[in-house]
């Protein structure tokens, strides 16, 4: 009866076709739907997850396995494969042909534009988008950043991962790694690589036991993931309106809003899976934070950027504008610390031909030369707030009578602790010491914590611990300001401690054209007292400082 009524309406043929498709859709949910999926173990997990989610809203479905170009060609790296969508094109073709009703994709595999007639109807919750570096246990070197031995062979076919890994560890040899997740892990087990890199989301979904390897987890702020990494996309025909409405029960609009920023950045750069681009957007305390890493080639040092905004409107465009070829960078940057040739900050500035003036305005000297053994007798944790604290504490040759845990503030302190041969059990991220104290308190409350540090320390972490935590403050060094500090004519002044601020501005004023970056809130507080505007990086380390300079 309904078909007859539609036929009576005087409308063009193409509109008749659309109405008929909509009519077919009206009875679609009364039958078993067909879900198109790739055949890998992870793809099947993802498709079955959506199938079970549909069952929870009284929609039955079955799977149809479809082989894609990316599944058939395993001897080429991603950047050698032609075109885009080599893990999605065949699924989309069957969707358009009507042989399946919906396709389930890893969202990061999708091109930034849907083929005409297809839409993303729903986006899943986002699994943790962190990266995992799996290392053979006999290839672990705690003294090295990321814990993999010097010159190690690391497997990944992602130019994005390659560029960021080499920025941290230029000594690594990055080689192609293809195959599904279990296959890749098998190649590591067979010692074809010293380490491999995988997305945490896939490993978590498959519930794979990694206990045979040493696992380093890199947060999205450390190694920036691919746009939309960790989320699933449900793709349908645009005319299937009733199915679209039903799928809204599975849709996470908050995740979709964040992914839209990442995928718009990718689209504006005109890139696909081969582009060395990492972009990650998240909402934190009402602000949208965007981390971006971009290079032109996998073996090129990437530019990194961190910005935040109250809304996502125009946010992707702001990110891309910072990477414009026509953009003018500062000619010279001053930083209040000495830099080694391997310094991330130095390499980042040199990558943009920015002149660097690196000199510390303070001296540090030890305040004790011997450590009483009783101090270490019952401690459970040692917490370091700075690299200097690590350095001067271990100059005392501490002997721990029992196993202790280590906490640090920032990756700089973590790296220094590695050089001393110890892994960290907690790393405080960000510049807000109150937040770090709150996080650390969840682990350390009720224990005995030793805080080696500077004489006259602000004790920011200690103040966040509960009364049932025994705190032992151990001053191991003091800071001495240099006299008659010479002013810098750099365009950007980067200050790495409150003492360096005091030393510089004891004799100098800020020029009107100069911009200021402060490594953390305690350093920034000095500028608050002076009424000076400054930029605060996301993380209190050289990567964060480089991001801050790039974002000016």
From TrEMBL:
This protein's pathway: Porphyrin-containing compound metabolism; protoporphyrin-IX biosynthesis; coproporphyrinogen-III from 5-aminolevulinate: step 2/4
Cofactor note: Binds 1 dipyrromethane group covalently.
Superkingdom of origin organism: Bacteria
Reactions catalysed, as given in the entry: 4 porphobilinogen + H2O = hydroxymethylbilane + 4 NH4(+)
Domain Porphobilinogen deaminase N-terminal as annotated: residue spans: 33-243
Annotated ranges, domain Tetrapyrrole biosynthesis uroporphyrinogen III synthase: 349-541
Keyword Membrane: no
Keywords, comma-separated and alphabetical: Porphyrin biosynthesis, Transferase
SUPFAM superfamilies in UniProt: HemD-like, Periplasmic binding protein-like II, Porphobilinogen deaminase (hydroxymethylbilane synthase), C-terminal domain
An annotated Gene Ontology molecular function: hydroxymethylbilane synthase activity
Gene Ontology cellular component terms for the protein in this record: cytoplasm
GO biological process: protoporphyrinogen IX biosynthetic process
InterPro entries: 4pyrrol_syn_uPrphyn_synt_sf, 4pyrrol_synth_uPrphyn_synth, HemC, Porphobilin_deaminase_N, Porphobilinogen_deaminase_C_sf
Cofactor requirements of the protein: dipyrromethane
EC number, as in UniProt: 2.5.1.61
Keyword Transferase appears in the UniProt entry: yes
S-(dipyrrolylmethanemethyl)cysteine modifications at: 273
Stored Pfam families: HEM4, Porphobil_deam
Chain's role: Tetrapolymerization of the monopyrrole PBG into the hydroxymethylbilane pre-uroporphyrinogen in several discrete steps.
NCBIfam families, per database record: hemC
HAMAP family per the UniProt record, alphabetical: Porphobil_deam
Remarks, miscellaneous: The porphobilinogen subunits are added to the dipyrromethane group.
Quaternary structure and partners: Monomer.
Family statement drawn from the similarity comment of this UniProt entry: Belongs to the HMBS family.
Protein name: Porphobilinogen deaminase
């Amino acid at each position: 009866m309904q078909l007859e009524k539609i036929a009576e309406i005087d409308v063009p043929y193409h509109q008749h076709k659309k109405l008929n498709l909509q009519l077919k859709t009206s009875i679609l949910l009364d039958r078993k739907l067909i879900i198109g999926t790739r055949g890998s173990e992870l793809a099947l997990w993802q498709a079955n997850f959506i199938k079970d989610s549909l069952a929870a809203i009284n929609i039955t479905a079955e799977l149809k396995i479809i082989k894609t170009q990316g599944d058939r060609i395993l001897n080429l790296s991603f950047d050698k494969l032609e075109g885009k969508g080599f893990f999605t094109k065949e699924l989309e073709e069957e969707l358009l042909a009507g042989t399946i009703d919906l396709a389930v994709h890893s969202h990061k595999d999708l091109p930034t534009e849907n083929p005409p007639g297809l839409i993303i109807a729903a986006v899943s919750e986002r699994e943790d988008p962190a990266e995992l570096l799996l290392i053979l246990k006999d290839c672990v070197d705690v003294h090295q950043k990321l814990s993999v031995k010097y010159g190690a062979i690391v497997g990944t076919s992602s130019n994005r991962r390659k560029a960021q890994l080499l920025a941290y560890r230029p000594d690594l040899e990055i080689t192609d790694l293809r195959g599904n997740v279990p296959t890749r892990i098998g190649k590591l087990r067979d010692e074809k690589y010293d380490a491999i890199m995988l997305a945490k989301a896939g490993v978590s979904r498959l519930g794979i036991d990694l206990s045979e390897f040493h696992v380093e987890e890199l947060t999205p702020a450390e190694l920036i993931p691919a746009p939309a990494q960790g989320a699933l996309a449900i793709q349908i025909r645009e005319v299937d309106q009733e199915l679209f409405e039903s799928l809204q029960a599975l849709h996470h609009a908050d995740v979709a809003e964040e992914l839209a920023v990442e995928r718009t950045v990718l689209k504006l750069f005109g890139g696909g899976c081969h582009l060395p681009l990492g972009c990650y957007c998240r909402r934190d305390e009402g602000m949208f934070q965007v981390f971006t890493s971009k290079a032109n080639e996998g073996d090129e040092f990437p530019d990194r950027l961190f910005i935040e905004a109250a809304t996502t409107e125009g946010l992707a465009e702001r990110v891309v504008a910072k990477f414009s070829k026509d953009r003018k960078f500062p000619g010279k940057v001053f930083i209040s610390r000495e830099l080694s040739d391997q310094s991330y900050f130095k390499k980042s500035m040199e990558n943009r031909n920015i002149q660097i003036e690196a000199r510390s305005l303070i001296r540090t000297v030890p305040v004790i030369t011997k450590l009483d053994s009783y101090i270490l007798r019952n401690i459970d944790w040692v917490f370091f707030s700075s690299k200097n604290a690590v350095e001067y504490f271990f100059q005392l040759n501490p002997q721990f009578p029992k196993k202790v845990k280590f906490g640090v503030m920032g990756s700089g302190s973590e790296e220094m602790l590695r050089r001393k041969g110890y892994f960290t059990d907690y790393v405080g991220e960000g510049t807000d010491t109150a937040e770090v104290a709150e996080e650390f308190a969840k682990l350390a409350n009720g224990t005995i914590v030793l805080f080696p540090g500077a004489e006259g320390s602000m004790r920011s972490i200690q103040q966040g611990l509960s009364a049932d935590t025994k705190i032992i403050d151990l001053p191991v060094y003091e800071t001495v300001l240099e006299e008659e500090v010479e002013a810098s004519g750099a365009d950007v002044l980067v200050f790495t401690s409150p003492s360096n601020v005091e030393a510089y501005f004891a004799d100098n004023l800020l020029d009107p054209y100069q911009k200021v970056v402060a490594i953390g809130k305690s350093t920034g507080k000095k500028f608050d007292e002076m009424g000076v505007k400054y930029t605060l990086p996301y993380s209190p380390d050289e990567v964060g400082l480089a991001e801050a300079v790039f974002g000016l």
